[in-house]
Amino acid sequence: MMDHKGTRRIETPRLILRRFTVEDAEAMYKNWASDPEVTRYLSWQTHDSVETTRKLLEQWVENYKSPDYYQWAICLKETGEPIGSIAGVRVSEPVGQVEVGYCIGRPWWHQYYTTEAMMAVMDFFFTNVHVLRVA
To answer: At the N or C end, where does the chain have fewer CB atoms within 10 A?
Structure first.
């Protein structure tokens, strides 16, 4: 049985994983949401304006009220700027599984930031939420 904790702040050597705020809209739009190469395989379309990003973030912020909602901004410790996102996109209580999705802006590809974030999120899910599987 999962013990949902909601999106909690996680720190790694180079990153801070935290809840999004509506104020992140410009950075998110600039760093990845407006890039069709980054958003090609996401469940949402490439954003055509900062306003589109702002509306999505308003939904995400509202969803933080739910203890089984997991959506983190991937932020560089050195700048605090969001460079991507990682989330529990599907939570399956009956089998104790969380499916994780992520994206990161192209300037940060091939630097193991996503790997670092994924390892931290997996540890969070196994240790704190008591999931049995991460997909």
So the answer is: N
| Burial of 36: CB neighbours in 10 Å, binned 0-12, 13-18, 19+ | exposed
Q: Which residues contact 61 (CB under 8 A, 6 or more apart)?
A: 19, 20, 21, 22
Return d(Cα 70, Cα 8) in angstroms, integer.
8
Residue 56 has pLDDT above 90, yes or no: yes
Cα→Cα distances 93→33, 60, 70, Å:
30, 21, 14
> What one-letter code names the amino acid at 41?
Y
Tokens describing residue 31: 């760093």
* DSSP 8-state class, residue 109: T
Cβ(80)–Cβ(56) below 8 Å: no
Determine the Cα–Cα distance for residues 8 and 69; give it in Å rounded to an integer: 10
Give the residue from 117, 12, 28 showing the smallest Cα distance to 70: 117
Under 8 Å between Cβ of 129 and 69: no
Residue 95 has pLDDT above 90, yes or no: yes
Provide φ and ψ at 109, rounded to 5°. -65, 150
Q: Say how far residue 21 (Cα) sits from the centre of its chain.
A: 12
